[in-house]
């Protein structure tokens, strides 16, 4: 008995598996497990189980099988052979649920259909479809089936509406015979029959009119205000005519001209949906020709899902009007993020087909650097009028509103940078090497379903990494980018100390002249001499050729110190990194550093002059107090300049340079290199109060005032030394006359007159100027420290403490105010 049962199971499973032996064993095991499992009868009657089976068919979209099952079950009810009908249905349901679950998980990885129409084996708008079959054609000329519908109609009512043609004809014959018998027996029944026929004729007329109205055609003979039609029928008519209004709305949007590839794909999908709707109407029209097959109530049941589908399509089409490219895709993606499975089934094919043009543009851009965008839909735009020098900055721009919402900003920037890198290599670097990258495009579905698949992300990352890696190698190996960064640090940022010091010594006499008397060729020869003598001679020939001098615009009362600056020339791809704007920034930084170096050079020169002339000062006791003040001021100014210079060279330049090197080593693409470079320059300009901010302008103005006072102090010292030298020269004859001795008690009248008329007024003027410079310098430094104390940058606030760590200026100011 067991053997015969196993044979029956195998025969059943072989039919179930469509005669595929490779999956027979697995199916037999599943069926055997279900037969021998103790699951009991959990359903009280057929209706609950049938409702469960109906929902199962709906869940997996098996609409045709659902209605076929309804027809078979209707026939099965008339047969008395099967005694355990409920248990048999429960077993088949358990078997179908197992198989459908496996089929569902297998279908997740399948690609999205290429068009929305391909998902309709039978139009999802209708409950009916016409299938030409040889056997049915001979008997009736056509057959009808029912399609998927979502309504609250009970399963019993659905089964009543979906009997096959044979049962329908038999029931109608029985109805006519019953009416004839009743007419012979009772006149009242005849009257009821006549009224029923009238109602059927009226309903047939309404149905024929509705078929036109549902296609957007005006139906004057059908009005919802007709008093001869009952209120329930008028309500149904209004609902059916809504289909026509929605259809006409979608049709007008389809007929609107569009200049967009994505828009054309969207219109094509809408047209496909309307063709399915026409197919539904034609099926209903064919069924309407059969008496009793179509009624308003049946049509209401059949049109529940189509009406919802039309509403969804109309809402989507209305919101997408006037949009194109990424904006249209963003709207579709927003509508697809919905819990309604019907709306998702509409939107996913739409998204799939509309994403194809953008996907092709992305692949063409990141693989070949070409933008094929005739209607300005792509989120990367190009300007063909931009020159090669501005290719990276201005030729290719990112259109943020055109980025689809399912593409992140990070992905969009990587796509943008990858295409720019390819064009930069070809146009600016003159490199046309074909990169060995995987050019297999990602599926369109992977763009808007990135939670399920990383195919699109992997494609972007792989091509981005390969392209940017090659560009970085070209910049480092062929164009020596890092060497030029280091050269700028050594020369424009005064990092090469021996070269800068020797250059200032050579140029001092030239730079002390008026600015209009300084000539480029004289300074150029001095710079060449400094290169030959210092360690700069060991630089590469390319760096030495790029190092140059520049004379800025000459204004009145300026010296050569104010118009002379070092320059570094760039060409080729380096012009993209070191742009003209960045060159001007470096010039501003160099001028500031050059001015600070000049102050350091001046204070050191003053100290050397004072030390050198100290013995001469000792010969004139009248100026001892003045010399003491000079030494104090010299030390005070030297200390201030050294503090500022230390802050600039170490806390600003060295720290910024270290951060820049780290960022350059970590940078993967040219955009990151440019951002790191710009951030470093901006940080230096801010900390050197050269960024143009109001607070920085006040600090720069105050520091310039302090530097002017230091230069005035240097000129006063020179005047004092010159005065002392003249005085000693004038005293030589008198010292020789008195055997080299000089005393005030024996000085003649002429010498006294010369002292009071010449030396004393000069010393008085110098002393007065010295006092003014001393007071102005301390006040200026105090004000500068007060401004630093409240600066938002912490490094500048720390500079205030460094310059006045012992509160010398505060004590000095307090003592003066007290006195």
UniProtKB/TrEMBL annotation:
Molecular function GO labels: gamma-tubulin binding; microtubule minus-end binding
Domain Gamma tubulin complex component C-terminal: 482-809
Assigned keywords, A-Z: Cytoplasm, Cytoskeleton, Microtubule
Family annotation (InterPro entries): GCP, GCP_C, GCP_C_sf, GCP_N
PANTHER family in the cross-refs: GAMMA TUBULIN COMPLEX PROTEIN, GAMMA-TUBULIN COMPLEX COMPONENT 3
Entry similarity comment: Belongs to the TUBGCP family.
Protein name (database record): Gamma-tubulin complex component
